[in-house]
Amino acid sequence: MKVIEVVISNSQHEMRLDLALVDVDIGMSRRKIREVIDVGGCYVNKKRMRIASRKVYQGDKVRLEFSLEGLKQAKKQDFEFKAEDILYEDRFMVAVNKPPGLVSQATRTQSLVHVEAVLKNYYKKLGGKIPALTLVHRLDKETSGVILLAKDNKTANTLMERFRSREMQKTYWAAVKGIPSKKKFKLKCQLSAINKLSGMVSVLASGGKTSETSFNQISANDEAQISLIECFPKTGRSHQIRVHLDHLGLPIIGDKRYGNTQKLERISPEALTKTTSHHLLHARQIVIPNIDQGKSISITAPLPPIFEDFLKMTDLESK
């Protein structure tokens, strides 16, 4: 892990963050500096900053933390689904194991590569008719795991209603900093909408939308002060699990928005490099109840390699 710290002087006052760092001459190109900022490795006055155009002022303290491996992983955009990534498929729906870094759906700023487009390319390579696909729920960009798509409008409406009515049984795994005081615990609170400027969700004293998650500790490393937590969200608010765990003092390892103060000082440098590419939150399982003559469908997704490696390196046992 490489660390660079600078104090903005009068000559860089009111310059863009990326240009100011070039002007300071820290031995990095502007493009490399922007890569570090994009992956969340830049702090201004101890607050994570992901906006390269943000102005800095005399006296501001800027800290860059990054690894070459992490930057290399973050730049990879050549997503491709393989046969082993198809977790479940029938004539009505398909479930895939979304890798970290792949956005769930197209947006105005991320319209080139997303789950539906990558899956359609998979079917195209197989030959034959490409099904009409509809994404029925979402995962955050860096969250990996089970994601469902319907193959027709009727199935899409049915699955979306199951999510709205909270019938879907969802299980997530999260590697967090800290060890909970109880093996089983839960949090119910009010959450804000996503702030357009910070991109973050906040816990509110009143107002907002009700959110609820139950948690179960799978394993813990007392020496490293980290845990593997099983998460069962009852509601499906934006960033819910990430905000809940951070609010409980158990921030998800590698999260670039929440838990900015987390520092993993008791794990090996090799394990530390695994925390720079994406946060360690994984949609482990979805159970769809009463889908066919009262039968349920259970779909489980293997962990991504970086998450799996981190657990092995830190002696966090998984099921």
Which stretches of 5+ consecutive residues score pLDDT under 50?
none
Beta content comes to 25-35%
SSE arrangement, N to C? EHHEEEHEEHEEHEEEEEHHEEH
Number of helices: 8
The CATH class assignment of the largest domain is: Alpha Beta
Dominant shape: globular
| N- to C-terminal distance | 30 Å
Structural Rg? 21 Å
CATH topology of the largest domain: Pseudouridine synthase
Question: How would you characterize the overall build of this protein?
Answer:
The chain is α+β, with helices and mostly antiparallel strands. The protein has three domains: 2-66, Structural Genomics Hypothetical 15.5 Kd Protein In mrcA-pckA Intergenic Region, Chain A (Roll), CATH 3.10.290; 83-164, 2-Layer Sandwich (Pseudouridine synthase); 169-313, Pseudouridine synthase (2-Layer Sandwich). The chain is built from eight helices and 15 strands. It has helices at 17-24, 30-38, 68-74, 115-126, 153-164, 240-247, 269-273, 305-313; strands at 2-7, 42-44, 47-48, 61-66, 86-89, 93-98, 134-135, 144-150, 169-177, 184-191, 203-204, 209-221, 226-233, 281-292, 295-300. Strands 5, 6, 7, 8, 9, 10, 11, 12, 13, 14 and 15 form an eleven-stranded mixed sheet that branches. A four-stranded antiparallel sheet has the order 1-4-2-3. The longest helix is centred in the middle third of the chain and has 12 residues, at 115-126.
